[in-house]
Amino acid sequence: AQTVTQSQPEMSVQEAETVTLSCTYDTSESNYYLFWYKQPPSRQMILVIRQEAYKQQNATENRFSVNFQKAAKSFSLKISDSQLGDTAMYFCAFGLTQGGSEKLVFGKGTKLTVNP
Amino acid sequence: DTAVSQTPKYLVTQMGNDKSIKCEQNLGHDTMYWYKQDSKKFLKIMFSYNNKELIINETVPNRFSPKSPDKAHLNLHINSLELGDSAVYFCASSQRGGVGQYFGPGTRLTVT
Q: Can you give chain A as a three-state secondary structure string?
């Protein structure tokens, strides 16, 4: 079974600074996907960024980038130029495809607060 | 133009009742999902349907029954509600595996 660990229950950062959220996972699979989802106080789950395990290049989406270390089974999220709207719970997720579906296993989340 | 919608957004009911949550997506996706988020924010998959076929069926009490009348709709029916069923239930959809999922706004179910 796959497990996802987010070791930082809470973090805070000053506006405009950079913050890195940690995520490690455990699996015996070789083909999988990794995701970061954001859940602001509105409760909506929003996909932030995705990474395919077979790609060595780290994914980036504007101010969001990942550091994917496959051998170490590590998948951290870096947020640059933090904004107040980045305040949210951030969930790391491990994904396997199954019959056209995508089975996601989530970590317990990191609550990020961006301070003005 | 809501991509994934759920009704109702809030549901308060008594133990022993039967209730349903409806989900619709207008993204043309083939796959839909139900997740449960508990009071500690832990999110766990319950079911997935691909083109109306049940694909993922996690260890969920059989009081929970998903129904997919067509690939744009996936409803969740819960029989004999228990206190432990109180949670936020999310519907989601994806075009295929590996691309990530679009989530609905969630339904907060409170069982008293």
A: CCEEECCCCEEEEECCCCEEECCEEECCCCCCEEEEEEECCCCCCEEEEEEECCCCCCCEECCEEEEEECCCCEEEEEECCCCHHHCEEEEEEEEEEECCEEEEEECCCEEEEEEC
* Most A CBs within 10 Å, among B38, B93, B101, to test the A interface: B101
Nearest CB neighbour to B97, from listed A42, A46, A101: A101
For residue B1, the model assigns a pLDDT of 65
- The shortest CB-CB distance from B90 to any of A45, A47, A103 is to A45
| CATH code of the domain in which B39 resides | 2.60.40.10
Check A97 against B102: CB less than 8 A apart: no
Of A44, A100, A109, the CB nearest to B97: A100
Mean pLDDT across chain A, nearest whole number? 95
Each residue's pLDDT tens digit, A19-78: 999 999 999 998 999 999 999 999 999 999 999 999 989 999 999 999 999 999 999 999
Q: How much is the mean pLDDT over chain B?
A: 93
CA distance B58 to chain A (A): 10
Compute the average pLDDT of residues B39-45.
Answer: 94
Question: Domain limits of chain A?
Answer: 3-115
- B99 is in which domain, residue-wise? 4-111
